[in-house]
């Protein structure tokens, strides 16, 4: 019997694997939260599949998304990243990754963890929507607006409401699997 999946991932094995194993699963690991934050900010204006196809290159280029190392990147490292054809070579986004790593650490210092901070926006409980089709998923919500505004106030870059809603979906703060998707009740 064929698994019913959300329509956005069907037909591409990388997309299907990401959908089946990661998307919408509640995530609380600091390193992975930062990884998704970086990937979502680089995705701004691009398709998610473009980012997924370059994910391993990003891992290598960005020291396995170790935010403590990234926060210390200097001009030489920035230039190295901008010459790396395996990632998205956007100067503003590279700078944002560094700035966001520094601010990620500040949030950890203030709240004990980034996990505590980000999940507080949903009181630690994932929002479970009931969409019949993936095209019903909103691009933004009041919560993503609130997160975006707060992160920007804290100095984060490329964290608009649309990016933050995609981040919420990726880390399982919101379950936007279609109701007939096999993952809907699993996450």
UniProtKB/TrEMBL annotation:
Pfam family, one: Adenine_glyco
Keyword Hydrolase: yes
Gene3D superfamilies referenced in this protein's UniProt entry, alphabetically: Hypothetical protein, domain 2
GO molecular function: DNA-3-methyladenine glycosylase activity
Key words of the record: Glycosidase, Hydrolase
Hydrolase found in the keyword field: yes
SUPFAM superfamilies in UniProt: DNA-glycosylase (SSF48150)
InterPro entries xrefs: Adenine_glyco, DNA-3mA_glycosylase, DNA_glycosylase, Tag
Alphabetized NCBIfam families for the sequence: tag
Descriptive protein name: DNA-3-methyladenine glycosylase I
Lineage: Bacteria, Pseudomonadati, Bacteroidota, Flavobacteriia, Flavobacteriales
């Amino acid at each position: 019997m064929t698994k019913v999946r959300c329509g956005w991932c069907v037909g591409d094995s990388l997309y299907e694997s990401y959908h089946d194993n990661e998307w919408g699963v509640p995530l609380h690991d600091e390193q992975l939260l930062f990884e998704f934050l970086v990937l979502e900010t680089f995705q701004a204006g691009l398709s998610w599949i473009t980012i997924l196809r370059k994910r391993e290159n990003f891992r290598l280029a960005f020291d396995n998304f170790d935010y403590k190392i990234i926060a210390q990147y200097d001009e030489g490292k920035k230039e190295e990243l901008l010459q790396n054809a395996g990632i998205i070579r956007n100067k503003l986004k590279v700078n944002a990754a560094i700035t966001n790593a520094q601010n990620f650490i500040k949030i950890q210092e203030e709240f004990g963890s980034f996990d505590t901070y980000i999940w507080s926006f949903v009181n630690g409980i994932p929002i479970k929507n009931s969409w019949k089709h993936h095209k019903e998923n909103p691009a933004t919500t009041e919560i993503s607006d609130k997160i975006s505004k707060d992160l920007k106030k804290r100095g984060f870059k490329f964290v608009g409401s649309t990016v933050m809603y995609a981040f919420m979906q990726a880390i399982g703060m919101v379950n936007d699997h279609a109701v007939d998707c096999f993952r809907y009740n699993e996450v």
